[in-house]
């Protein structure tokens, strides 16, 4: 029998859910389910300078799509509410004050100007000192005088690096807030990226200063590009929403990220959500960084599509996914079932610009419209559209045609050629919405090479 694990995923609402964040959430979720424990979602929103409105909802939507459902959290309740750290500031301030009373922390009244001078002096002398402990030497009377003057202050941990625990705005830093919450919420295992490994010693110091037992720390290896550079936005798709937009199945993406840093010691690579829970074991986590291979994801998604197609329930779920696309795009054009693969083929395969249909279409196109459709500036403006829906795309095509003195229907047909390679199909803007921004941009780039 496994001891039930209480784990948490604690993202900051600063943008979309990163692929690495999905893996962290998934590993925590699998451990909780494997051991009969609980998976907690906690929103670490205390850094108000990086807070993005709406990001929390997007994070939770992405987790829900992936089938990672918390046992406790903002929308699920639980015995440790609230699950937003911004609503728990009084708790952190009380523990910080306790650390000050015990001599483990102190108030720092230094201005930004003085802190800058300290850093510059340290750099000139080659010292690795971020702060010189100036305020740790204040007497009780000096501290009282500063407090009566209502001077702004931070609270620092009284260690070698004098880590800030409470910022001047009263909000805690990650270091204090996560330690306090992990203890109060009974977290037994902390699974997080290895970028947090350098901070772990100070977290252990905090646990000991507060008289608490630390949880078990597990640091996950980095996700890398094929060239072994760290996965980043500049290198391609890194957000879960981008994979959703491209049409990947949630069980395929989960299966894919689960194998980025975990080896089930099996030749089998395709696992259902239930099989992942059954096989997951912390002892099988890898220490080396994991390479994100999109070709492998494509193969894995195909396997899960085939798995769904083997059962009536799975086929019904695929129909449910396809139905909105077909209804929106083809409800006036499909006359019988055999029309579907002919009219919908470009949703599933890349355009064949060498086909008779594509060649016939190309001959009818206005050359200026084709040049405009395939121009790099066109790709740039399409890539920067705030919303990628049919209405926005139609407006964009209209404005682009008008700006370049080209008839809108000529540009529409040139775009149809680039993204579908066919003469007949759904409306161009509707088709582009269903295909999604990344696919449309890739097809435009591919058409340029023809």
Automatic annotation (TrEMBL):
EC number: 6.1.1.17
Segment forming the signal sequence: none
GO cellular component, one term: mitochondrion
Annotated source species: Phycomyces blakesleeanus (strain ATCC 8743b / DSM 1359 / FGSC 10004 / NBRC 33097 / NRRL 1555)
Similarity remark: Belongs to the class-I aminoacyl-tRNA synthetase family. Glutamate--tRNA ligase type 1 subfamily.
GO BP terms in the entry: glutamyl-tRNA aminoacylation
Gene3D superfamilies in the record: 1.10.10.350, Glutamyl-trna Synthetase, Domain 2 (1.10.1160.10), Glutamyl-tRNA Synthetase, Domain 3 (3.90.800.10), HUPs (3.40.50.620)
Protein name in the entry: glutamate--tRNA ligase
């Amino acid at each position: 029998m496994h001891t039930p694990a209480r784990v948490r995923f604690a993202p900051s609402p600063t943008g979309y859910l990163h692929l690495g964040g999905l893996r962290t959430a998934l590993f925590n979720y699998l451990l909780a389910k494997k051991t009969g424990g609980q998976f907690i979602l906690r929103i670490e929103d205390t850094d108000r300078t990086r807070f993005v409105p709406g990001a929390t909802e997007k994070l939770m939507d992405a987790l829900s799509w992936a089938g990672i459902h918390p046992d406790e959290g903002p929308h699920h309740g639980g015995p440790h509410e609230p699950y937003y750290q911004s609503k728990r500031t009084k708790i952190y301030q009380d523990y910080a004050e306790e650390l000050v009373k015990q001599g483990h922390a102190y108030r720092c009244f230094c201005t930004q100007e003085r802190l800058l001078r300290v850093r510059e002096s340290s750099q000139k002398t080659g010292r690795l000192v971020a702060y010189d402990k100036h305020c740790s030497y204040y007497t009780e009377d000096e501290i009282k005088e500063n407090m009566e003057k209502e001077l702004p202050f931070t609270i620092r941990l009284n260690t070698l690096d004098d880590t800030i625990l409470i910022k001047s705005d009263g909000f805690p830093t990650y270091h204090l807030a996560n330690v306090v919450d992990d203890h109060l919420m009974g977290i037994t295992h902390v699974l997080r990226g290895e970028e947090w490994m350098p901070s772990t010693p100070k977290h252990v110091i905090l646990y000991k200063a507060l008289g608490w037992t630390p949880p078990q720390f597990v640091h996950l290896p980095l996700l890398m590009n094929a060239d072994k550079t760290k996965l980043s936005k500049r290198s391609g798709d890194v957000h879960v929403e981008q994979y959703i937009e491209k049409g990947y199945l949630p069980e395929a993406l989960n299966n894919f990220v689960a194998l980025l840093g975990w080896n089930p010691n099996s030749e089998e690579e395709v696992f259902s959500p239930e099989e992942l829970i059954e096989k997951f074991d912390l002892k099988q986590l890898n220490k080396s960084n994991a390479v994100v291979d999109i070709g492998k994801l494509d193969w894995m998604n195909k396997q899960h599509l085939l798995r769904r197609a083997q059962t009536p329930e799975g086929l019904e779920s695929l129909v449910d996914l396809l139905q909105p696309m077909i209804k929106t795009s083809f409800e006036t054009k499909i006359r019988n079932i055999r029309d579907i693969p002919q009219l919908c083929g470009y949703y599933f395969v890349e355009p064949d610009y060498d086909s008779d249909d594509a060649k016939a279409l190309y001959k009818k196109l206005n050359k200026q419209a084709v040049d405009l459709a395939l121009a790099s500036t066109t790709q740039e403006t399409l890539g920067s559209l705030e919303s990628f829906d049919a209405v926005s795309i139609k407006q964009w095509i209209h404005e682009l045609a008008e700006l370049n003195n080209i008839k809108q229907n000529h540009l529409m047909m040139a775009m149809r050629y680039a993204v579908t390679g066919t003469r007949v199909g759904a409306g161009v803007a509707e088709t582009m919405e269903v295909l999604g921004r990344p696919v449309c941009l890739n097809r435009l780039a591919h058409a340029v090479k023809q």
